[in-house]
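Form 7-S
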Amino acid sequence: MKNTKKLTLLHSNDMHGDFLTENVDSALVGGVSLLSGYINKVRNEEENVIYAIAGDMFRGSIIDSEFQGLSTIQIMNMLAPDVVTLGNHEVDYGVAHLLFIEKCADFPIVNANLHVQTNHARLFEPCVVLERDGMKILFIGILTEAVLAQCKTDGLIGTVVDVEDAAEEVGRICNTYNATDIDFTVLLTHIGFEEDKKLAELLDPAWGVDVIIGGHSHTFLEEPAVVNGIPIVQAGTGTDQIGRFDIVVDTDNNCIDSFTWKPIPISADTCPRDPSIEEVISTYKSRTDAKYGQIITKFTRELTHPDRYRETELGNLFSDVLKEALGVDIFLLGSGSIRNEKLGPVVTKGDLCECFPYDDAAHMVYATGAQIKHMIKHMLRDEVFVGEHCEFYQLSRGLEVEYDQKSHSFVRFDFEGAPIDEDRVFTVGLQHFHYLNIKDSFDITLEELKKNHNDRVVSTSCTQVIEESLLVGQHQNAKGEGRLILHLA
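Output:
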């Protein structure tokens, strides 16, 4: 008769400072108070419980931005995860600041492949072994270069290039730790759901990886994807839900005997509150409310940004503001810069900072019409439409693009009502992050563009430009104008 033990594995990802409970259809949903209440409830009900976070605790809320992640770490300490891996937004405040924040954390942060380029010294412990009822459970943290674009601001920091390298790193760690009789192995990744599936295909079954818990693509699942015998899960985004595995571990053969997994909604109906966390959040919130309660503007109605991979009302508004204020022909605004699905009609300073939290500089580059067509065509590559996490851009007024995915061709590519002149050199505005990552986002290099004219910084703060424009322009409106029409295959 084989020996088995029960393990309950809870997990979150991409929480993005989603601390506060929301009122949805007269019901309280999400927030770390109710999330903590659920985790504590499970810890009291079950014997062997582990709570893991698969990256991106930071960014997305005024509280997080104002205190540069220190508030988040204090709140996470009270939530008491057993293990956390890094997401791409953990480095938004700089790698040095992240290393300081790690010292404030009362939980292990694991990452196997973020390193100093000069000597390849790892910045974090690659893994951790947690013990429950005699079981040894190995957690390995993985990032890839594709999601860590922010680190390009720091030339000394590097990571593995792709999932093939990540798989080799996993194998190296598993081979090292299997000698200590690991009963169960979990990959905590922050590379996106599609990349997780590719990674699973590359893993040698002899390495003993049992589960992949992922993040980055904000994928909400009703059931796990099983690839190469490995269940892959993710729990959407924020704190409105948590993933739950109930696993029977075969401790003789160090593998899963059986399991169930489901997303658990976090709501007041099923989750008790945690008053101690509410008290801490209230202290931070009272300080930010005083600073960010100023009303900036009133739109004619609520404006929306429901999907980063299409033209949106907020995308149109912000890209137009930056185009006009900075005097460029075209502004390509990163869709992911807009973090909320709606804004207004009354907009406070806090609302704007939460919706548009990345206060980048703006660069003006020079591109020919032919180069702009190439850049937009790369932006519209097939990977965007099959769920891969790619950069996408909102187009400022004057640029109108109609694209047929089946033929991979433009039906129309106009500037100011006429087909774009492929030989004309246009001024194009880009945020600093996207300027640094222009090769990945647009398949073009800065060196190519500098042949047209040297680029320059035209603003040190996109947020200030938008805020000033909204202050002087009350009752603004924006509609989907057909700037980007997509015919999908």
